[in-house]
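My main concern about presentation is that the manuscript never shows what a single data entry looks like. The format is easy to grasp once an entry is in front of the reader. For illustration, here is how one protein appears when written out as sequence plus structure tokens:
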Amino acid sequence: MHGGIERRTSRVFAADGRSVMLAFDHGLWGDRSGGMADPEKTLREGVAAGVDAVLTSVGNALRFGAAIDRGGLVLSLDRVEGDPRAAVDEALGLGADMVKAMCFPGSKDEERSLADTARIVAECHARQLPVLLEAVPVDFDAVDQHTTENVAAAARIGAELGADVLKTHFTGDAFSDVLDGLAVPLVVLGGPTRVDDRGVLADVEAAMRAGAAGVAIGRNLWDHPTPAKMIAAVGVLVHGGGTRDEALRELG
């Protein structure tokens, strides 16, 4: 059966089942750097450069919705706790194709985090609205905990909670272990800003070859000196099945 969840998810992914998402919700934590300084300009340029979807905040969707109309819209509910009904209503009212939530397996607040996630998933699914779940072991700062084993466990927990799409860290050579048995598409997050374009593209290439469904990259796209060229380079890997060397030519 092809219902609302499948239909909306298809707006976030291209016809090949893969997606280049521009992660642009960092302003929720007060980020005003780089492309965050002029959100409308960044969003327009990102969509024009060919991203399949934009992952952003309610505020950006309210003010700059016209800039996003040509791509899928994923709204961040990262700041939502407790009863999610009003937030889900707002997301639907803004035309969101998907919402993003976060959970932190292994953290000291694990039980609350997972309970909040379960409420959001249940409420969204009752409205046929898909959920992209960012499942991160412990928290973003606990980098020593972001091992393949822990990331795989977090992803499995996210899948069991009912996520329609997962988002998590790329873990290197053993990344295929994270994907084993998930039966849920997974996109790789971009992480902190890196000056090494080859390294970023090498990770995207390896993630795609391991079976990832795409990427959801923020700073390494919108904080890049030439965001449109970097988006095109990532697209070579995600949609074109190219190599990092082929992708690097887009930056030339």
The chain has one domain: 4-251. The domain at 4-251 is CATH 3.20.20.70 (TIM Barrel). The first helix runs from residue 4 to 12.
